[in-house]
Amino acid sequence: VQKALHANVTGIPYPWVTCSDVIRGSWTDSPRSMLPIIKQLIDAGLRIWVFSGDTDAVLPLTATRYSIKALNLKANTSWYAWYDKQKVGGWSQVYEGLTYVTVRGAGHEVPLTRPKLALTLFRHFLADQIMPLSPN
To answer: What are the start-end ranges of the H helices in 1-136?
Structure first.
């Protein structure tokens, strides 16, 4: 996968792991909050999607909702259930410039814990379509 993505071209000497302590412990140049950067990206006209697993204990979806609320964005679509086939895949809300999506039953790393639902989310993002409003 690294070769296909042209990743690790510098030959990092340690293996990839989820939530790397090597990176987390030495990453000191990041801002305390991404909210100002997200706001700048929205103001620049970029399409922003934020997603959370609804069982994420590291970054709970409630904390993400509070952060999004702090951006003071106008809601275009109320909080709604989205579907994957006949089952609820999660919940979503569309704001001016930002879409928030939760993924049902997913933890901190959505693609690892719910890959099928993560693919549905990614496909809708790429197609610039809101998450499915009804069972298909």
So the answer is: 21-26, 35-43, 61-70, 110-113, 115-127
pLDDT in tens, 56-100: 988 899 999 999 999 999 999 999 999 999 999 999 999 999 999
Tens digits of per-residue pLDDT, 16-33? Answer: 777 777 666 676 777 778
The position carrying tokens 């904390």 is: 63
Segments forming the whole domain that contains residue 99: 35-127
* CATH number reported for the structural domain that contains residue 89 in this entry: 3.40.50.11320
Query: What are the φ and ψ backbone dihedral angles of 51, each rounded to 5 degrees?
Result: -135, 155
Residue from 77, 82, 81 nearest 98 by CA:
77
CB-count exposure of residue 1 (10 Å: 0-12, 13-18, 19+): exposed
In whole angstroms, give the CA distance from residue 113 to residue 3. 24
83 within a domain of the structure (yes/no): yes
Instruction: Give pTM, 2 decimals.
Output: 0.83
